[in-house]
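Posted in: Structural Biology > Protein-Ligand Complexes

Title: Requesting predicted complex, calcium ion in pocket

I'd be grateful if someone could produce the 3D structure tokens for the following input. Sequence and ligand are given below.
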Amino acid sequence: MAKKNSIQRVIKKMAASEDAIHNTSANDSFDQVLTRARMGRRGFLKGSSSLAAASMLGMGLAFLADAVNHKGQVAKAADLSLNFNPVAKSIADTLIVPEGYTARVLLATGDPIKSNVTAYKNNGTDNDFNVRAGDHHDAMQYFGLSRDGNGWDSNNSDRALLCINHEVCEDLGFVHPNGPTDYGSESTAARPPIEIDKEVAAHGITIVEIAKQGSTYQINQDSRYNRRITGATVFEISGPARRSPMLATAFSPNGEQTRGTLNNCGHGYTPWGTFLSGEENWAGYFHRREEDTALTEKELASFKRYGISNATSGRYNWSRAGASDNTDLYRRWDASKTGSSADQDFRNVANTFGWVVEIDPFNANATPKKRTALGRMAHEGAWPAKVVAGQPLVFYTGDDARNEYVYKFVSAEAWDPRDATGGLAVGDKYLDNGTLYAAKFNDDGTGEWLPLTLSNPTIANYSDYAFADEADVLINARIAADVAGATKMDRPEWGGVNPVNGEVYFTLTNNVSGSNGRGVTTPLDAANPRYYADVKDDTTKGNVNGHVIRWRESGNDPAATTFSWDVYLFGSQADAEADVNLSGLTDENDFSSPDGIWFSEAMPGLLWIQTDDGYYTDTTNCMMLAALPGSVGDGEAKMVTNKAVPTNADGDQMVKTYVGQAASPTVLRRFLVGPRDCEITGITESPDGKAIFVNIQHPGENSESATDPTQFTSHWPDGGNARPRSATVIITRNDGGTIAI
Ligand code: FEO
Ligand code: CA
Ligand code: CA
Ligand code: CA
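-- Reply #1 --
Done. Output follows.
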């Protein structure tokens, strides 16, 4: 019985999260023959060495040798080599790092961030999450603090602010004494407000000051910077959708504000020292009641495309605090039309979520902002391209759901280095005006950026959804990208830009389902070329283990509208057949479901890859790998044989794709394996490269009970009978050297 409940919980969770599919657009992600004929550069790129090819493309060898990182420092692309023994796969309930390294917990769920707060009891009785670390630690960023304690010093390895995303509050209810009361979208019962308040407060972002002590770091609980941003914090809505009637609510009738940020997953940071955070799987928190038939055709189309359910409650039933408390703090999760106009209810509240948010960690009084120019989707994060004075700023961003798209934002304003301080006002200048694009990956290894604006005639003339204005295009960016013809991808997770050569990497975590997904409802294409069965389970099919795609913008100009791409790495078990293990992974580096990806700035050229996996977890817990990637075109074209592909009338389907150089343990090596049932996500570093900070998210997430320790699958990090907790760990080398290199 317990098992059945657990399976039901997992299914419910999948339906409510990124695993759900809401892209039913006709984009089949196959490129037209015409496009292939027009853009044939791939032909000559193949067969050349990467340097020769780069030179022929006009990159210049100097570019490969030097790069200006986001801090304006010139980074030397040194001859890096990985300098640690690979960690073996493991299913132990332990965090494993290489020999000669030490991992210490810095901040776990519930830990105090202020000195007057009691130690977390971890038994569900602590309610004050406004002054404790939130749950489900995700992406994070180290911002060096200036020596005088005022403002950003990107080179300070001794003192810093750490901004940590908290993606969700786990479903089992470890934060409550006896699990949650009346969860879920099937429930019509009221929930105790105390539970809702705690869950809302466990979402969001934590900002804490840390200081170096000996070989590690401690939290300064007395810092004036320490604060929580939660699912109830007031946000300004900024950019083109500010004051749109589509954002009007009873809380902010003119559409200028909203309360809360949710599912803060991946991140980014700006060259003016602010933190960016992506609102990912927010849709499930909202609902409209089934009896509500008052939505317009456009509203219904939008709800469907974004997955707002027509159930009687949202994912956590937050709208039902019961007769004892029916204030709009709870009512706001219900997107039904209950009033006679938008200023009387929360029919538009879901339009105020799904944005990239900007937070100034150095100004605790600054109201954070939702940057609507970057579009509304299940945002993973927003990663800046190389910053160049006099050029526009570019941020890459992705929509993490199956068959969704990769996007980029190009600012209207050119970067002025004098704006390197100034907080959110500088954000207004660069992040509120610009062009949002969606990516089209052609089958010949080229690609195009499709502008999502009414100046694009296919969008302006779309009759199935008549966009009212540019705000509508951004609020319904998914629909605009459908119409523009973007390529459906295998769940875009994190992105990153290689400081050595400006190339952009994106993880495509997987795309599997019994009844739909890659190869089942969405045809294979060159950029998403695999359909196969999981080695252990013949019924799990699709892109089981995910891949990492990368591209080089034409002319190395981040604002370019064309690019060339290849697949840097295919996730796979080492023992899978050659058509699956296309990157030649071995026992030292095989992985599944890449999610977090992050380029070191201290060690330009070093890439970290993290996994959030459910398919190889019979063999190993989730992990983190260190990599030394080459560049686009350093591998070869390959024909992949896929067997019995449902979308292909002929069954077996050969797909031509472009694979980067084989990943020997020399250039890809497992660095860390997490405790049981966790995800490894989020990594940042001290500027001297001698400490990395890594998040261990939801250890024990498949536990059968929140209260019976014998039913926990993990007790990490506290051990014994403790409830498992997410946590930030600091990893240092025992000899004080740089990490991994
Ligand atoms: Fe929250 Fe897409 O991972
Ligand atoms: Ca993720
Ligand atoms: Ca994931
Ligand atoms: Ca997860």
